[in-house]
Design a protein that fits this description.
The complex is a heterodimer. Chain A is an alpha/beta fold. Chain A is built from 8 helices and 15 strands. Chain B is α/β, with parallel strands linked by helices. Classes of the chains: A alpha/beta, B alpha/beta. Strand 10 of chain A pairs antiparallel with strand 11 of chain B.
């Protein structure tokens, strides 16, 4: 059995789950057996109806709110049914609780993989390392735990009506959640966005990000920020792109007033096209840019917004 | 009380990487205490300063890792343990190798960086927690001790939350938790005399590293002059629309 951890928002499967399923089917070609899903959370009825269409067998675990311990225990309960491989969408949370799962199973953990395949009873994968600067080819014997980097795999299609089986969650020592702090959600999520418009220190103020929000909305993208901007309190930490923030790989990455420190590059250097606007022609970001404008971002950004609007008309 | 920071040594992000025989060759690179682990060291020092006890740095890796352990000692950690291992080891195998050392030390809590700058892995905290049979709080941005428990704020994929957790527990650290201090000259002098206990690692690898390649994507580098912002913006949008076909 190949077990897929299906990430969801309470109502729908997330896009990453469909990518993880596609990877599971690829492993199934070589490893055989069923593809099973595990759905963890609270009030799973609705999303279970969607999820069962993608798998032979769906395990549901009513686990309450997320903690790494509960999610790890839930995955382990399903994995105990004979999983050769556990496949999950890559996220901060999954990369934490699957560390627990891999340790408990004595399994090789292949994190944030770009590609994966099975051969001779072993699982191979490619992934980035060294702040995204190096591609590694790795392999692990079964059982293996594998996370799938977002936007690397065409999503799976529904295939039928899988059986559904509820699994109990054994008692587990965990953290007590005291208070949730919701991030204000605007438009598409940074990790999944096809276009990211990031502002750096060169934007000068929190107010200047209104124009970035406008450009991002016009392009159907998400707003990003550099560490300096987050440190200054202009934007929330959730928008930070870089080594200590999020890693993104959109089709189009627009860096405005960003100098291009290595820590920032680590979070975006795999974007398909990189655009930079900076008044300093020596800014390192230009070495990593496909297109750029050397100029004052406060003049160029409004002109860009106008030019995009004109194109859309 | 005993506060442990688990650290690793990694190449500086600024240093040039080269590949030799399908492997990253670090012989010419500047190696540093992982910046994500610096937050762990700083937090261990702050907890000790506030609550008393001992702050211990545990490092994993080859002989050269002693330099990173000395850096943590120069920042103020009391003593070090070096779990010595040459060559590649995956995070699950590292957690396994560190577990007996950590169990023997019986810490109040364990801190380590949220992501390692060489593996690009985020699994060490979770794997260590499983190895010790304790909870993990990942991506911690605030941490306070309250008797037998800790109150912590940490980031999730969406938003953040405050949690209470019984100690011992593992916390992974990141930017925002604190501002790591620099080693001082007296600190560096003192660090030379501090104890580093060497332990030979028992490692059973779970992942084999087959090949490493550096693939710096060649960029187009079409840079326009923005003296006329409107003209430059229009040309850029044209290029993105007609040439790159991304908008």
């Amino acid at each position: 059995m190949i077990l897929v951890v299906l990430d969801h928002d309470g109502n729908r499967l997330r896009k990453g789950s469909l990518e993880a399923l596609a990877r599971a089917y690829r492993l199934q070609e070589a490893l055989g057996g069923e593809v099973a899903g595990v759905l963890i959370g609270e009030g799973l009825g609705g999303v279970a109806e969607e999820a069962r269409r993608y798998v032979d067998l769906l395990y549901t675990v009513e686990a309450g709110p997320y903690t790494a311990e509960r999610w790890a225990k839930a995955v382990l309960e399903a994995a105990k049914k004979g999983a050769k491989a556990v496949v999950a969408p890559s996220s901060r949370q999954s990369r934490t609780y699957l560390g627990r799962v891999a340790f408990a199973l004595g399994a090789g953990l292949l994190e944030d993989t770009l590609e994966s395949w099975a051969e001779g009873g072993e699982v191979y994968a490619t992934r980035y390392a060294y702040l995204n600067r190096v591609t590694q080819k790795v392999k692990a014997a079964l059982p293996v735990v594998l996370t799938v980097k977002p936007n690397t795999t065409p999503p799976a299609e529904p295939k039928g009506e899988g059986r559904v089986e509820a699994l109990p969650l054994p008692p587990v020592e965990t953290v007590e959640v005291l208070e949730k702090i919701q991030e204000e959600k605007k438009g598409v999520s940074l990790a999944e966005a096809d276009v990211v418009v990031t502002g750096g220190r060169g934007m000068g103020s929190a107010e200047a990000f209104k124009a970035i929000e406008e450009l991002a909305a016009l392009l159907g993208g998400a707003v990003g920020a550099t560490r300096a901007v987050v440190d200054a309190g202009w934007r929330p930490y959730g928008e930070q792109v870089g080594q200590t923030g999020k890693t993104v790989q959109p089709t189009l990455y627009i860096a405005l007033g960003v100098s291009g420190a290595v820590q920032h590059l680590a979070g975006m250097n795999k974007s398909k096209y990189i655009v930079a606007v900076n008044k300093d022609p020596e800014a390192p970001i230009f070495k990593h840019a496909d297109y750029g404008i050397v100029g004052d971002v406060h003049q160029v950004l409004p002109a860009l917004i106008q030019a995009v609007k004109k194109l859309k008309d | 009380m005993k506060f442990i920071a688990v650290i690793r040594q990694v190449p500086d992000g600024e240093s040039r990487l080269k590949v030799q025989g399908g492997r990253v060759d670090l012989s010419g690179a500047t190696l540093i205490l992982d910046q994500m682990d610096e937050y762990a060291v700083e937090e261990a020092l702050r907890l000790k300063e506030k609550h008393g006890g001992e702050a211990v740095v545990v490092g994993f890796g080859p002989e050269r890792v002693e330099e990173a352990i000395r850096t943590a000692l120069a920042m103020g950690m009391d003593r070090g343990v070096h779990v010595v291992h040459e060559g590649y080891a995956d995070p699950v195998a590292v957690a396994e190798a560190l577990a007996p050392v950590l169990r023997e030390e019986a810490p109040t809590l364990v801190l380590t960086g949220g992501q390692q700058a060489d593996w690009d892995s985020q699994a060490l905290g979770g794997a260590l927690a499983e190895a010790l049979g304790v909870p993990v709080v990942a991506w911690t941005t605030a941490l306070e001790l309250e008797g037998e428990t800790a109150r912590a704020k940490h980031d999730l994929d969406e938003g953040a939350e405050w949690v209470r957790v019984r100690l011992p527990a593992v916390f992974t650290t990141q930017q925002g938790l604190n501002e790591p201090r620099y080693p001082t000259l007296p600190g560096i002098m003192k660090a030379k005399k501090k104890e580093i206990r060497k332990v030979a690692a028992q490692v059973s690898p779970k992942v084999a590293l087959l090949e490493e390649t550096i693939q710096e994507k060649a960029r187009l580098g079409k840079i326009l002059d923005g003296k006329d912002p409107v003209a430059a913006a229009e040309e850029l949008v044209r290029l993105l629309h007609e040439e790159a076909k991304v908008i």
